Amino acid sequence: MQYVISGSLGNISKPLAERLVAAGHNVTVISSKADKVAQIEAIGAKAAIGSVEDIFFLTNAFTGADAVYTMVPPNFGSGNWKKYIASVGEKYAAAIQASGVKNVVNLSSIGAHMADGCGPVSGLFFAEKALNALMGVNVKHLRPGFFYPNFLANIGMIKHMGIIGGNYGEGTKLVLVHPDDIAEAAAEELLGLSFSGKSVRYVTSDEKTTDEVAAILGKAIGKPELPWINFKDEDTVAGMTQAGLPQEIAENYAEMGAAMRSGEMASDYLLHRPDVFGKTKLEAFAPVFAAIYSQS
Fold first, then answer.
1. Positive or negative CA dihedral for 217, 219, 223, 225?
2. Tell me, what DSSP letter sits at residue 206?
């Protein structure tokens, strides 16, 4: 089988590509960076260097593939983050149609049922919509929860303020996931190709309240009393911009946090909650968090 994987050697794309190569398949990995070629070839894959915003490049990369894995890479320099995400989804769709690919596994997110009000995830609503408009193409949208590594962004806050927090709301239960569990789900879908039409699969590793997150990560770093503090939306934006994020990106993150707080982001997930979770619980990620914390 011929597979094309977008996302370069990221936290999901690399282990996904490794699984497909180990299963004996031909894998092409898309990257925007030429200096990744040697690393991609080292895992037994072929490199395709170009931009996911280039339909001609994508069409050439996709041609001949039995299935492709699509994801929108981050672009914090975009003046309109949601529009950028939606536009990449549209370019993927155009290239898939032009290349004749019939099977797509697309990385989306919990909350992608929201056309508005969920920060960058609302951009993924429109990326899903573009792929769903393809005729004769089977598409499986993976909607994972909040990535464990996202908590690494709180290390500075913990070290300098002695707290961890966000604008997610008091006692909010977070739907969490380890990137390797997403890679496992994507590999299962790509290797099986048992999906048809357009469908969604939620991927989660654990569910924890914000206080439980603070307790687990705090214990791992020797701060068992680490408190979770809930921030106002405007304070969240101010803190992110002071840390160097562009205003537009910070506002999108705050909007997503508000959707988590209201419960709307998880509302469709709760209607289709998976019976089986991924294998990596937050407690298993905590030592990794602690190791990075100690080196920061």
1. positive
2. E
Dihedral angle at the C-alpha atoms of 138, 201, 111, 241, nearest 10 degrees?
-90
E strand or H helix at 221, and its extent? none
Per-residue pLDDT tens for 49-87?
A: 999 999 999 999 999 999 999 999 989 888 899 999 999
Q: Are strands 146-147 and 2-5 parallel, antiparallel or unpaired?
A: unpaired
The encoded tokens of residue 248 equal: 């537009």
DSSP 232-265: -HHHHHHHHHHTT--HHHHHHHHHHHHHHHHS-T
Fold of 2-144+179-203: Rossmann fold (3.40.50)
Residues 273 and 194: their CA atoms lie apart, in Å, by 20
Q: What secondary structure letter does DSSP report for 76?
A: T
Report domain extents, the chain: 2-144+179-203
